[in-house]
Amino acid sequence: LPPPPSGKRKRMDIRPDAGPFRLAVDLGTTSIHWRLLDGTGHEAASGQALNPQMGAGSDVVSRLAAARNQEGRERLGHLLLRFLQRVVSDVGVPVAELCIAGNTAMTSILLNKDVAGLCAAPYRLTEPGGRTAELPGLPPAWIPPQPAPFVGGDISAGMAASGADVYLLHVTTTPSVSYVTRTDGFDCGVMISASH
Questions:
Q1: I need a labelling partner for 171 at 20 to 30 A (CA). Which of 13, 84, 93, 114 fits?
Q2: Dist. CA 153–CA 167, nearest whole Å
Q3: pTM
């Protein structure tokens, strides 16, 4: 697989005594965005680049096909680890911990988990998230919850960051979301659908 372009980086005035520093990573299928936060939660640096796995395809289906066997999954996972190790090294201050939020496919590949359950119905997760992972050459990494086979940590982390209390109905109908929202006193209801 060819190396990705170096991407964009923005570095603020980082004071080494402003830690502990934490790195927030949005692990997307196409691109990876990261933000270094100082001890007060303010941005100290940020960057983005194409996902180094792009040589295996630019979409989730291609990536899952490449990761179905152990060798392919390890190769793709190694590309992500190397990228993250380089980001941590390049920020120039000790990073105490990471938060890596991605869709279920990218998260499973990073953690070298079997992706067969994401490749065909009935879909199932092998990595539920909601835990700290130990990854080679990296600080401890919080993996946000992966609520359902195609509702990953990218969605759950975004909802948590907004301060929302989130309840998952799982596979259901659009009218049932409307009904539960009204009868159970929720502020809003969201239906994620591929059919309309």
A1: 114
A2: 14
A3: 0.80
Question: What are the C-alpha distances in Å from 169 to residues 43, 47, 151, 179?
Answer: 35, 35, 12, 12
**With 0-12 CB in 10 A as exposed, 13-18 as middle and 19+ as buried, what is 105?**
buried
Q: Do the beta carbons of residue 83 and residue 52 sit within 8 Å?
A: yes
* 110 within 8 A of 142, measured Cβ to Cβ: no
CB 44 within 8 A of CB 14: yes
Judged by DSSP in three states, 167 sits in: coil
DSSP for 36-70 reads EE-TTS-EEEEEEEE-TTGGG-SSHHHHHHHTSSH
Assigned token pair, 180? 């539960």
Residue that is written with structure tokens 């979409």 in the block: 59
* Whether 186 contacts 180, CB under 8 Å: yes
Burial group, residue 110, by CB count within 10 angstroms (0-12, 13-18, 19+): buried
The residue length of the chain stands at 196
Q: pLDDT tens, 18-39?
A: 889 999 999 999 999 999 999 9
